[in-house]
Specification:
The structure is a single chain. This protein has 221 residues and is of the alpha/beta class. The protein has a single domain, classed as NagB/RpiA/CoA transferase-like (Rossmann fold). It has helices at 15-30, 35-53, 72-80, 154-159, 208-217; strands at residues 58-60, 84-90, 96-100, 133-137, 140-142, 147-148, 168-171, 177-178, 194-196, 201-203. The strands form two sheets. A seven-stranded mixed β-sheet has the order 3-2-1-4-7-9-10. Strand 2 and strand 3 form a beta hairpin. It starts with 14 loop residues before the first helix and ends with a helix. Mean pLDDT is 88; it is low at 216-221.
Length: 221
């Protein structure tokens, strides 16, 4: 079992400096997990995520690498259920596109430092608007849905394209859901509505998903 995650206070730092400091700490913490732990957690995450996606027909997801929360068990489970899965992929001129997941056998690294990608047709960025559910990577998320990403800004740009009613989740380890402080944000950052961890799906306060769930249950806010 990994040690507790202790994030440093970043008050007084510029936003990008604060994010860089937090990323360094979370990445180092993630590297402390063993391969056996990651394998077990990957299956637990898949179980939670399958409940979260419900009857979705198309899911936007990603291929995890290194010490990230593993997504391959979820990818295969969605594929087995004949749910379409959109994955980030490089297009002409290294443009960011999407491609359909056809199975783990079809994944291959297309560029150094990039996650494995499907070999099929590259779809435009707007293909994400076809997704019924979006699951993003993150290093941490706070109680308001502020997301600490890897730093490329890809998912913030993609989330701006989708209908605000589309459920958006980040996949994390349990201790990366931060409830003791707010994460640094700038005007380009987009909040997610919920997080998926190995033990739960947590709806974030004020999220559209939270409101929809309460309304469906007949609960008054």
């Amino acid at each position: 079992m990994s040690e507790p995650l202790r994030l440093p206070l970043t008050l007084g730092l510029e936003v990008e400096d604060a994010k860089a400091e937090l990323r360094k700490v979370v990445r180092e913490h993630r590297r402390s997990r063993t391969a056996a732990e990651l394998e077990r957690l990957g299956h637990e995450l898949a179980s939670q995520a399958l409940d979260a996606v419900g009857d979705a027909r198309t899911v936007a997801l990603y291929v995890s690498t290194g010490s990230e929360p593993p997504t391959l068990p979820l990818l295969d489970a969605l594929h087995a259920r004949r749910i379409r899965v959109l994955l980030p992929a490089l297009g002409p001129g290294l443009e960011r596109r999407w491609a359909l997941y056809l199975g783990s056998h079809d994944l291959a690294q297309q560029a150094p430092g990039r996650p494995p990608e499907p070999s099929g047709e590259r779809l435009p960025p707007e293909a994400i608007t076809r997704a019924d559910v979006i699951i993003t990577p993150a290093l941490a998320v706070d109680g308001l849905g502020n997301r600490l990403g890897q730093g490329g800004g890809w998912y913030d740009r993609m989330l701006k394209l989708v209908d605000p009613a589309t459920p958006s989740f980040s996949m994390l380890f349990d201790e990366e859901l931060v409830d003791t402080q707010l994460l640094p944000q700038d005007e380009m950052d987009v909040r997610v509505q919920a997080v998926i961890t190995p033990t739960r799906v947590f709806l974030l306060e004020g999220s559209r998903l939270q409101h929809a769930t309460l309304e469906k249950a007949g609960v008054q806010r």
